[in-house]
Amino acid sequence: MGLSNASEDLSSEMEVDAFRRLFPLRYFERHLAESIRPDGRPLGKARETSIFLGAVASANGSALVKIGSTTMLTAIKMEVMTPSLESPDEGCLAIDFHMPPICSPIVRPGRPAEASPVVSKQLSDTISSSRMIDLKELSLVGGKAAWMAYLNAAFSIMQDIYCLDADGALFDAALISAVAALSHLQIPAVAMNDDGKIVLVSGEDGQKPVNKEKRKLTLRSIPFSLTCILHKNYILADPTAEEESIMETHVTIVLDTSGQLISLYKPGGPALAYTSAIQDCVGLTGQRVKELKSYLDKENSAMEVVV
Amino acid sequence: MEYVSPEGLRLDGRRPMEMRQIRAEIGAVSKADGSAIFEMGNTKVIAAVYGPREVQNRSQQISSHALVRCEYCMANFSTGDRMRKSKGDRRSTEISLVIRQTMEACILTHLLPRSQIDIYVQVLQADGGTRSACINAATLALADAGIPMRDLVTSCSAGYLNSTPLLDLNYVEDSAGGPDVTLGILPKLDKVTLLQMDSKLPIDILENVMQLAIEGCKAIANYIREILLANTKQLEYRRGV
Fold first, then answer.
1. For position A141, what pLDDT does the model report?
2. Taking the domains of chain B in order of start, what are their residue ranges?
3. Predicted pLDDT at A32
4. A216 interfacial to chain B (CB closer than 8 Å)
5. Residues of A in contact with B29 (CB under 8 A)
6. A101/chain B closest Cα distance in angstroms
7. Which one, A197, A201, B132, B199, has least CB within 10 Å?
8. Of chain A residues 56-85, which have a CB less than 8 A from chain B?
9. Residue A146: predicted pLDDT
């Protein structure tokens, strides 16, 4: 008891920043008791979010997303591939999540960040299980024996997501930027050349396009996610890196725009996530999905005006 | 191919002695000690500086001065075709070394013994002149991190195509096979800290091309100073100084 009183006396004398560094959990809990967070947000509120489409000129589709300080840049390059024998009329989607050393002091060159393959896998699983994209839409030439090089051909979407600033909720930001880049993606027009190779059509060539003109992908129900932290009986939406490091129980919930639950991810952590807590998280995610969809729709309509 | 038209215009509409539009922004990465975005036309680069901090590998610790490390990396989507391997290739290693040696020349490392300064540079869009853009971004990031320097380092490229000296080459001009001079200077001290040249170039023409690159470097230095000054004023305003 005496020890806790002594540390309380000490905290009153110390500068706020020093107290925050020495006793981070107690610093946060003092805020939580007032139902507010150190950055001034209510517990269930996400950070300010912005979406910019067409951030990379050299890509077929791209998006820059910021959630607070967390920044993700996604760019898509389309490549022509020969589809697999199991699904000859389908293209494919490959997602790579990168955490270069610029994004955080924890990430050092040489060894890739631990989170990179985990987030890559989660993103791939989420986007494929949401059935947001019909991979048949990516088919170009199907089983036409007249074509020499490609008996069948399809597009493969190579999606690279770069984390430029890691300040918590990496999966949420990565998913938004992946989805935003797909919504911005324009499938390029391609044609078959004399050698039977599929090439991009430039305006002046007299080549007959295989796939009509540039077009957008049809996105069905779009998935969005929200990561929450469970600490005692508090639920904190959209945590910062500092909050993630102090409070270890995370729940990531993915819902699509039609309100269906796509995935739920709770990797361990000391706090037991009761059903009621998870339902509360789902409720918060539902609100967040509506918010994010409106941001994306607004940005897409702004892009159409520009075009 | 004609890189300079009879009217004296380049493929992108610039005059031979005209630079691409430059834009810089400080503090792009919140977690870094210093960071900056630097754009030269369609070339976009982001740099982050972490340090001075404890040396990660104790065997590399230097008791008399700071250890400077640098990593240059290109995003897979930064070029026309998607890159399969964006890190660890010989070109990236060479550019990392060039940036490190260039920045080491201006950092007052003796003031920071037994510490480590990490400079990370990521190319987001490449359209020629990436190493120049990286050096300029790194300079801004180091200044933002408050690392003591003798002077700013600014860099610019120049070339010689169709018997015309050209300033700040883009990708098409860079890959034309003509001479390409990359220059890095300490503008206040008027010293050259980096000079690289590919392809043959007569010595008398080299002087003209170098002079052109120096003028480009000085123009960038003026712009960088303006950016740093504006940033300092903003910080003063925020802190109520």
1. 61
2. 22-239
3. 83
4. no
5. 71, 102-103, 164-165
6. 7
7. B199
8. 56-59, 62, 69, 71, 73, 75-77, 79
9. 36
Please report where in the chains the tokens 């939580």 appear, as a residue: A32
Q: For residues A76 and A61, is the Cβ–Cβ distance under 8 A? A: yes
- Beta-carbon separation of A100 and B120 below 8 A: yes
Q: Quick one: average pLDDT of B201-218?
A: 86
Q: How many helices (H) and strands (E) does chain B have?
A: 4, 9
Query: CB-CB: which of A56, A62, A165 is closest to B31?
Result: A165
Domain A41-305 bears CATH identifier 3.30.230.70: yes
Please answer whether residues A98 and A118 qualify as being in contact, where contact means their C-beta atoms are separated by less than 8 angstroms.
Answer: no
Dihedral (C-alpha) B110, B111, B113, B119: value to the nearest 10 degrees? -90
User: Percent of chain B, pLDDT > 70?
Assistant: 96
Which CATH number describes the domain made up of B22-239? 3.30.230.70
The pLDDT of residue B47: 96
Task: Summarize chain B as % helix, strand, coil (round to 5).
Answer: 30, 30, 35
E strand or H helix at B207: helix B203-239
- Residue numbers in chain A where pLDDT is lower than 50: 1, 9-11, 13, 143-151, 204, 212
Which of B79, B120, B122 lies nearest to residue A58, judging by beta carbons?
B79
How confident is the model at residue A143, as a pLDDT?
Answer: 47
Q: Select from B12, B38, B117, B124 the residue whose CB has the most chain A CBs within 10 Å, as the one to mutate to test that interface.
A: B124
- Closest listed residue to residue A229, CA positions, set A72, A66, A43: A43
Q: Where exactly are the structural domains of chain A?
A: 41-305
The answer to whether residue B82 neighbours chain A at the CB level (below 8 Å) is yes
pLDDT, tens only, A145-175 = 333 344 457 777 888 899 999 988 999 999 9
The confidence band for B82, taking pLDDT boundaries of 50, 70 and 90, is: confident
pLDDT score, position B199: 76
**Angle A170-184/A115-129 helices, nearest 10 degrees?**
50
Do B75 and A104 count as a contact with CB atoms less than 8 A apart? no
Look at A142-156, B4-18, B152-166, B186-200 and tell me which has the smallest mean pLDDT: A142-156
